[in-house]
Amino acid sequence: MKTETLNIIGTVNAEATERASATLKAIPGVQDVSFLDAPARLFAHIDDKTTTRAQLVAALAGAGMLVEEKPSPHANGGCCGGCGS
Q: For the chain, first and last CA: distance in Å?
């Protein structure tokens, strides 16, 4: 099990979150989905052996919800050395 946090671009309303939740829950491996509205974020509890972040992002785009790209851990020049890159 893994929790993916997706930052949603723009605001979300109840209808959009219901539509997006149903779309995501139809993907094999998605266990639960929850939204926060300020800032707009989505938390998806997934089986990371069967479901990928890319699948979630694509499904949300199909439901009319855009997601910010996942920031690179090295985007600001900071590196903890933990990933070996």
A: 25
